[in-house]
Amino acid sequence: MKRMNQVILIASFLPFCWLAFMAFHELGHVMAGWMTGGTIGKVILHPWAISRTDVSPNPNPLVTVWAGPIVGILLPLLVWGVFWKFKIRGDYLARFFAGFCLIANGAYIGIGSFENIGDAGDMMRYGTPIWLLWLFGILTVPLGFLAWHKLGPKFGLGESNGVVDEWAAYASLGLFTLLFLATFLLSPRF
């Protein structure tokens, strides 16, 4: 049974992190679009699609595009900080998620600059120098791996020999199920 809990934890938490990363990232675009006077046309946040936010008109596209990865990093770090400060059970899950978001946003922007794709392509079209995108990736990706440091045993790896907190496994499964259903049912088809 201990391996089953480990499988449930890992198999549900990784896709939860992916969907939640996209949600936080798009929330940044939405917030910046509204705050700069733009109109949100559509937000694609679907399990089978790469997320996207359409803002038109978009009075300040550079702010809107940068807000995705910045908010997509700061909000997960804030969540982790709250979990850590108040010693909330499962704080290591919030820590892993924050690390995931640092890595995913950093890699998306840094590597995306080489192919001029997605947000990285938009950032460069709106005047951001490529070296700034590289710097963003160089700073965030290692910080994400640092956040993950020594978390292996919490996920049943190494000396823990497959033992994980059963509560964490089922909490993760519940969170993933809710987020999957919400993104699947509420997002417009891509």
Domain count: 1
Topology pattern, helix = H, strand = E:
HEEHHHHH
Head-to-tail CA distance between termini: 39 Å
What's the shape? globular
Q: Whole-number average pLDDT? A: 97
Number of helices: 6
Major β-sheet annotation: 2 strands, antiparallel
Structural class: mainly alpha
- Strands in their spatial order, largest beta sheet: 1-2
Q: List unreliable stretches of 5+ residues.
A: none
- The whole-angstrom Rg is 18 Å
Please report which band the strand proportion falls in: under 5%, 5-15%, 15-25%, 25-35%, 35-45% or over 45%.
under 5%
Walkthrough of the structure:
The structure is a single chain. Helix 1 (2-35) packs across helix 3 (91-115) and helix 3 packs across helix 4. The chain is built from six helices and two strands; from the N terminus they run αββααααα. The chain has 190 residues and is mostly helical. The chain is 69% helix and 5% strand. The protein has helices at 2-35, 61-85, 91-115, 118-125, 130-148, 166-186, and strands spanning 40-44, 52-55. It has one domain (2-186).
Labels describing this entry:
mainly alpha, 190 residues, two-stranded antiparallel sheet, globular, single chain
Write the layout of secondary structure elements.
Layout: H1 2-35, E1 40-44, E2 52-55, H2 61-85, H3 91-115, H4 118-125, H5 130-148, H6 166-186
Antiparallel strand pairs: 1-2
Helix pairs in contact: 1-2, 1-3, 1-6, 2-3, 3-4, 3-5
